[in-house]
Amino acid sequence: MELFAPRGTNDILPDAVGGWQYLERIVRETCERYGYREIRLPLFEHTEVFARGVGETTDIVEKEMYTFQDRSGRSLTLRPEGTAQVVRAFIEHKLYGKALPFKVYYIGPMFRYERPQKGRYRQFHQFGVEALGSASPLLDVEMIALPISLYRAAGLHEFEVHINSIGCHVCRPAYREKLTAYLSERREALCPTCLERLERNPLRVLDCKNPGCREATEGAPKSHEHLCTECHDHFSTVRAGLDAVGIRYVLNPRLVRGLDYYSRTVFELIGLDLGAQDALGGGGRYDGLVEQCGGPPTPAVGFAVGMERLLLSLEARDALRSDGRAPQVYVAALGDAARSRALEIALAMRQAGLRTELDYEDRSLKAQMRTAQRSGAQYVVILGDDELAAGRAAVRKMATGEQSEVPLTGIVQWLEGRVNG
Ligand code: HAM
To answer: Which residue has the least CA distance to atom 12 on ligand 1?
Structure first.
């Protein structure tokens, strides 16, 4: 039987890992600069966490979850996103009793049973940021500023910021009614999926990509024009805040987001190099979610970014850097006595902090030099039986070909003083 990875998953091989490490480092540095601390949560949860948290009528819960029964018959689900589980942990550990806002970030795999294509996978990676315990519009502004500054730090400058406000439990029902009435008059133009949405989740009709639906919704009532006074003031302050810090955005009345927990501000970061799957990241407020999941009333806001899409965008702009590092030293040995000393010397170098590689096979010096060259090592230590007898090794600096005789007793210090980071 031929074995291969499941559809929609990716193996990240060592040559590609440096790009991921580069990005992960920037994520950590940026989040910590903004005062967020890392949280690490399980890859699976009780199905209820997402069914209740993300919402029964969402695409994620209806058709995209990897749900299974474990051996004792519990229903578990591989996490499709991180917000609902951060809320679960926040309530479970009574973190609402500590200093608020509770500010955390996470990096890790998420799982959704979607049709794979470029930028859309069944196991993908997100980094996400959540702040629980403040309704301040300043936090909304910070939530939008953070991924922007992260993209810039990573080398990506080509993206758009879209924002909208979808109101709260006070103003949304009336808006929803208006929208439903408007859409009901245009039923014939809607696709079958939107006809279903019309009953259960009419806001989602606004972000349907189907040309018929788009045309039908062209003049639809806009949520940001139907806000209650509190939501209106909140959104005005968010917009003024974005202007004040120089963030340019598109006010997009079609932006409603696909998860049920949102209220007030929602936003998306749209990549310009991604084709159909162009959302680099998205988020918004979820002021009602903690309470809905059994905790005390706790306003909150957050976002998540798809790491694969960010990597694709960086690659498209030739801006992807790598944290992968070549060995600093390669130890080549010729002859039996020299080979057994080679490992000892390599271990001493590693102990001293030098990235060191060596030959494990009985290969010719030429072959070892070729491997050293390919590995990118800065120096090669050449050990022959004669050198060994004299207590010395030849050390070649690969960049210049310059060769020195170095006593074995001081070779670690000699290299320590010469290699680059
Ligand atoms: P989301 O919009 O479902 O939001 O996902 C956020 C980002 O994850 C998307 O913009 C996209 O870049 C990436 N993504 C989603 N699905 C896939 C996929 N199948 N393959 C590759 N990338 C994908 C959330 O998940 C919310 N939890 C965000 C949030 C946090 N809202 C508040 N706090």
So the answer is: 306
Rounded distance from Cα 110 to ligand 1 centre (Å): 9
User: 41: buried, middle or exposed (CB in 10 Å: 19+, 13-18, 0-12)?
Assistant: middle
Distance between CA 52 and CA 50 in Å, rounded? 5
Q: Of all protein residues, whose CA lies closest to atom 25 belonging to ligand 1?
A: 81
Sign of CA dihedral 118, 120, 121, 124: positive
Separation of CA 323 and ligand 1 centre (Å): 25
**Paired sense of beta strands 356-358 and 329-334, if any:** parallel
Nearest to 292 by CA among 260, 247, 258, 335: 260
H-only helix segments in 82-136: 83-92
What topology does CATH give the domain 14-171+227-316?
BirA Bifunctional Protein; domain 2 (3.30.930)
Q: Measured in angstroms, how far is the CA atom of residue 61 from the centroid of ligand 1?
A: 14
CA 303 to CA 283: how far, in whole Å?
4
Is this structure's pTM higher than 0.70? yes
Distance 283 CA to ligand 1 centre (A): 8
Quote the tokens at residue 342.
């080679």
Using the mean position of ligand 1's atoms as its centre, give its distance from the Cα of residue 32 in Å.
Answer: 21
User: Per residue in 341-372, pLDDT tens?
Assistant: 999 999 999 999 999 999 999 899 999 999 99
pLDDT tier for residue 57 given thresholds of 50, 70 and 90: confident
**Is-contact 255 207, C-beta < 8 A?**
yes
CA distance 30 to 162: 21
Q: What residue ranges do the domains of the chain occupy?
A: 14-171+227-316, 329-416
Q: Which residues of 213-234 are buried (b: 16+ CB within 10 A; e: fewer)?
A: beebbeebbbbbebbbeebbeb
From 12, 110, 151, the mutation candidate for ligand 1 (largest count of ligand atoms within 8 A of CB) is 110
pLDDT in tens, 227-274: 999 999 999 999 999 999 999 999 999 999 989 999 999 999 999 988
Contact 265, 292 (CB under 8 A): no
User: Domain 329-416 has what CATH class?
Assistant: alpha beta
Which of 14, 76, 21 has the alpha carbon at shortest distance from 47? Answer: 76
Q: Which of 161, 309, 311 to mutate to test the pocket of ligand 1 (most atoms within 8 A of CB)?
A: 309
SS3 152: helix
